[in-house]
Amino acid sequence: MSSSLRKLRIAVVQLNPKLGKVQANIQRARELCSKLQPQALDLVCFPELAFTGYVFDSASDIEPYLEEPRLGPTSQFCSELAKRLHCYVLAGYPERLSRAEHAPNDSLRSFSHLNGANSAVMYGRDGEWVANYRKTNLYDTDITWAKPGTGFATLELPLPLKKLSLGICMDLNPEREKAWSWETGPYELADHCVNTKTNLLVLLNSWLESPEGEEEDGHDWDTLRYWAARLQPLWVKDGISGRNLPPGSPNDTIVVLCNRSGHEKGKTFAGTSALFKMTKGSGRPVLLDMMTKDEEGVKVWDITV
């Protein structure tokens, strides 16, 4: 093995949170992570809206669970865990909008009925705040309460993480009501990864099970195939029509999809958190590992990068 290669160590926590039971969900996460050892990991990932649950019907429904950035229970837990493990920690949470964002000016008028954002927070090795990201492409459940973000996030981090791009669930899909095709796209998130020379893409999801319902060996294969297909620019053999790779673009992209499991208000989540290696021009994505659909637990992956 070349001396330039090293291990990237990632833990994915596939949770089955109970709606509105924030402290109980955090305690469950703490129990699941109790055997993780300090300095044994580079990154720990939790799903979208990890500790609140996902299916809130309105702005008033989610209001009691909105969290102040850097101060709420998700931030406190992530900071604590990051400091204990001496690694980076990512988790989704419902961010409370600031008073300024509720101000009645023209630029914000279309969002005046919204009270939050579907966000993700990252904490660093010493428990310090690193970044906050807001979901850009909102799902039906989100649009009743969440203000959309302004674009995908890419972070420059120490080795072996390097250049990490972050998305939340529906960010993987085309923009709402936008015409697209498998042949030409658009593939917004994958194109962002190519253009920013991303080597690690992390998606925090609360992705529902596939309506086709193909399940084999406890995995949601339809969902897994769809995730990979929406990232075609990172692996398709002949490229996507009209796209050229920027100079110096990395050949390989590691893709981490951290989904949740369980049921809420008649909805079933796909679980099947997965790890891919995608090599540009290879013609196929390589599935390195995955979890089952109904599993709740921690999966630790060591990847050579």
UniProtKB/TrEMBL annotation:
<keyword id="KW-0378">Hydrolase</keyword>
<protein>
    <submittedName>
        <fullName>Hydrolase</fullName>
    </submittedName>
</protein>
<dbReference type="InterPro" id="IPR039703">
    <property type="entry name" value="Nta1"/>
</dbReference>
<dbReference type="Pfam" id="PF00795">
    <property type="entry name" value="CN_hydrolase"/>
</dbReference>
<dbReference type="GO" id="GO:0030163">
    <property type="term" value="P:protein catabolic process"/>
</dbReference>
<feature type="domain" description="CN hydrolase">
    <location>
        <begin position="8"/>
        <end position="305"/>
    </location>
</feature>
<dbReference type="InterPro" id="IPR036526">
    <property type="entry name" value="C-N_Hydrolase_sf"/>
</dbReference>
<dbReference type="InterPro" id="IPR003010">
    <property type="entry name" value="C-N_Hydrolase"/>
</dbReference>
<dbReference type="GO" id="GO:0008418">
    <property type="term" value="F:protein-N-terminal asparagine amidohydrolase activity"/>
</dbReference>
<dbReference type="GO" id="GO:0070773">
    <property type="term" value="F:protein-N-terminal glutamine amidohydrolase activity"/>
</dbReference>
